[in-house]
Amino acid sequence: MLILQAIADLLHVSAPVVSGDLMITGVATLEDAKSGEISFLASDQYARQFDTTQASAVIVSKKVRLRTTRAVPVLVVEDADLAMATVLAKFAPPVPRPAPGRHASAVVEDSASLGEGVCIGPHVVVGQRVRVGRNVVLHAGVFIGDDVTIGDDCEFFPHVIVRERITIGSRVMIHAGSVLGTDGFGYRWDGKSHAKIPQIGTVVIEDDVEIGSCVCIDRAKFAVTRIGRGTKIDNLVQIGHNVRVGPHCMIVGQAGIAGSAQLGAGVVLGGQVAIRDHIKLGDGSMVAACAGVMENVEPKAVVSGLPALPHRQSLREQAAFRRLPDLVVQVRKLQEKIDQLQATLAPKEQG
Amino acid sequence: MLILQAIADLLHVSAPVVSGDLMITGVATLEDAKSGEISFLASDQYARQFDTTQASAVIVSKKVRLRTTRAVPVLVVEDADLAMATVLAKFAPPVPRPAPGRHASAVVEDSASLGEGVCIGPHVVVGQRVRVGRNVVLHAGVFIGDDVTIGDDCEFFPHVIVRERITIGSRVMIHAGSVLGTDGFGYRWDGKSHAKIPQIGTVVIEDDVEIGSCVCIDRAKFAVTRIGRGTKIDNLVQIGHNVRVGPHCMIVGQAGIAGSAQLGAGVVLGGQVAIRDHIKLGDGSMVAACAGVMENVEPKAVVSGLPALPHRQSLREQAAFRRLPDLVVQVRKLQEKIDQLQATLAPKEQG
Amino acid sequence: MLILQAIADLLHVSAPVVSGDLMITGVATLEDAKSGEISFLASDQYARQFDTTQASAVIVSKKVRLRTTRAVPVLVVEDADLAMATVLAKFAPPVPRPAPGRHASAVVEDSASLGEGVCIGPHVVVGQRVRVGRNVVLHAGVFIGDDVTIGDDCEFFPHVIVRERITIGSRVMIHAGSVLGTDGFGYRWDGKSHAKIPQIGTVVIEDDVEIGSCVCIDRAKFAVTRIGRGTKIDNLVQIGHNVRVGPHCMIVGQAGIAGSAQLGAGVVLGGQVAIRDHIKLGDGSMVAACAGVMENVEPKAVVSGLPALPHRQSLREQAAFRRLPDLVVQVRKLQEKIDQLQATLAPKEQG
User: Fold this and answer.
1) Whole-model pTM over 0.90
2) Which of A222, A231, A250, C274 could lock onto C292 through a cystine, CB 3.0 to 4.6 A?
């Protein structure tokens, strides 16, 4: 709980605050908020909800045009979404963590080195020669294979699996059930069977990466599969061997990136996107949800569809597609008219 | 093993049963059944297989028109598929479960409360202040975070992960490897990096829900992500933060529902469907497999395609699409004819 | 490390080798290779990289036409990719495995029988009457349910879950986090709720199958879900109940196969492919990435698109689709011309 003035101070709101001593008990959407809660309004789209909200205070983006006479206290900020993230952090209940040290049921090899403040939960396994930095949290059932290196301040949620020889930076968060370092999917037909191509490479996860649940990031055939610093990956994403993801990318749920594809800096992949093997996506490019990208994408380009095309072209084609059944009818009628015209003309010529 | 008459009684078949004392040893499809096994026929589509089946008896839906003189005993019922489910339950071998009480290797916090008849398998972890109802089965390696509440008669298969503060109803079944309560995927670009928006909400799973394997259901940003009573979810499904799924929905494998989307009652999503964030699907609406739904869907509407459209329109457009290459040729020929007509007319006018 | 001549011998290269005593320290792509490393060139497509590579030797496919005067030692082979797999195996660091015998924290039922040389890692669970063949490796946290049979020389990576009554052949590799034997997704609406249809069947995995991470293979309704010998399955794949996959298939990441579908021998499914329930794909058929297959596929056919069509037709339609917006414009102009022609003709007739 915080008083409203404390929230205003937190957000560097300089304007005087009405009812600054109001006690704020929680955070909710305009629609769901109850008395005592604070809400937020970041776009004109939801302005109508402002008129009926039960929230006791609202954080509003500067750009929103409020046409209302309601007396609810308002904190005007540059970006209400960003402000809300700051406020939420104050109301967030702490994430439960295993106690510092090692749980009695954990199996930690003697040759592993653990930094200060490390918390190791029940049934965790830490392999030989693993190096774990400071304040790392390994929740219950996490598996760390031999010769893995982990930086400082990482948190791996229950049952995360990091196979052998992988390198992970600092402040990396990996959510429950994800698997790093499975063999890449590589075979050669030898005339009788699919012969396995050994996958002798590894995986590098740079600083400040966050990885969702049930994500698979495969080990490289040789060299590394790399996830660049600050990149965020949602649940159930597949990243093939030798993929290189640049810094600050966003990869939404169930997207798949096939082997050796390269994403530049700040690339955004929507949900269920598929990226073909060996192609390159330029810096700042965006791929709309459900698209299948079969060719290289230019920097800053926006693509959509299956196969993916520049988004404008895709929209133009979709619009034409909507008219296609009518077009078929129109062409049939044209055909009839022309046949008629020809019939009309033919006798004339004979006559 | 059951005698045929016992099966007839189970299905409330009042007609006299031929060979009622026949011993039935198992259940199989018409195609695969061997002597001693019972099979079923629910649609005219498979009627031909009835003529050649080796099954010793067949359960047949009333509506099926059997044109055969085969002497195999038949039990006529309203709905053979439903009847088969009843019979299968009698032949189902029991699912092995850990012994009642706690396995010695399980880690259960003292502040957790366990109902009567609870079975806790090896390497299970149960956090602080967890409340577990009666007859709940936690298979090997299940993780239950702090402050979770679980109703009666639930069964969680190996390695299910339920993060902190989640509420689960009664008779909920969660299959192996699923993860509930991962942080929703929410960030704000702060000019230098993707700043994490704290996800302080929770997840509510209502009564009689069944969840497949490797399913991810994310924690709400605030308030709850909710799965309505009686809803069934297949494997590898992604459910984003703040999603609300109504009662009695069916969500088929690899479907994904983006943040804050809402499904009404009895909604059906086919396999690999994608639902855009913040949209609403009305009660009883259906989405065909592989569709990508980008806009709200009316109650009882059936949509398909990418982007999803009303199914009839989608079919009409697909049919037109099939004719598109021919249409291109047809238009080229029309163009030629018209050019010819114009050429024919032009001299006339001059003349 | 190997000398170049040893690599030549390994590949049965009969031609004399330049610098045969050169010490080779590793393997890399032409682009990434450093001095001391060997690389490979399997197609003319990458021939330009040959001119600038820092590799100390290159394995080249016979068919590649090298137009270069570079003095780097070359080993000419039939198939450079296949040769590379052989060389990689020599450079592959050994996969770390639990020590032979059972880890003290593993829970193995007395009625389980373990073959010679079995390695059982920490926190593994092996159920009642399980039979495990020789030299099987069960990594940390693996769960094997009651009455499972496993052949010789299998390796299951951390946290693999094999539910009760499943049969697995020899030399089967299952990667971390996969789940075999979850109930198939089957319900019947009983008027009030989705009644669960018991799934009393099982799963059979034949010899030499490899299964990626977070793969779900469901238990049959009755009889078996079967994966044929030598088939390879990538990560995050969903295989429904009663599916039958033939021998030597390749199933790429995030593909989904719905219930009772049948794949013949040597079928290839690209990434994110969806296969409808109850359909059949003939021997040697191929499905392009992202396709949704709604109907049977002929042997050796190649299909693509959503819904999937023969690949040639699909390409023809896509090409026509690219021209659709122009076609709309063209038809509008034709319409104008015809209207003009009619107007031109009409007065004539009156005149």
Assistant:
1) yes
2) C274
